[in-house]
Design goal:
single chain; mainly alpha; globular; about 0% strand
Length: about 130
């Protein structure tokens, strides 16, 4: 039961991030930790938002099928995306203040930890 709740929260978070990125890509870029020097980069933000929407949708379909073990592994695999995103964002030295960088690390790192935790709890059968 706990795993399903955690998975549902993670799925809702991915979908919310995707919707926000599609509707307000400039703001989403700032929250995401991406410095935009060119308005043409907003297309990339929308593509990343679409990626999050699709991943959230796929995880939701797996959850709807009640495939607990598959969902657990899929959550773990999805955590890799958050880790890679964290690496990409933190290597950009243009990211603003230390406080802002802490928020960015918390967003991506927290997402990865949440996805891993949900996956682990599901795989443990809870």
């Amino acid at each position: 039961m706990v795993g399903w709740v955690l998975a549902s929260l993670a799925i809702a978070g991915l979908v919310a991030i995707g919707v926000a990125g599609m509707l307000a890509p400039r703001r989403a870029a700032g929250e995401y930790g991406i410095v935009l020097d060119d308005d043409r980069a907003l297309g990339l933000i929308r593509a990343m938002a679409a990626r999050d929407l699709v991943i959230g949708g796929l995880l939701a379909l797996i959850a709807w099928a009640a495939a607990r073990e598959t969902l657990g592994w899929a959550m773990g695999a999805t955590a890799l995306i958050a880790v890679v995103d964290l690496g990409v964002v933190t290597t950009d030295r243009r990211a603003t203040s230390r406080t802002r960088m802490d928020r960015i690390v918390a967003l991506h790192g927290g997402g990865a930890v949440g996805l891993l935790a949900a996956g682990a709890v599901l795989l443990a059968g809870c």
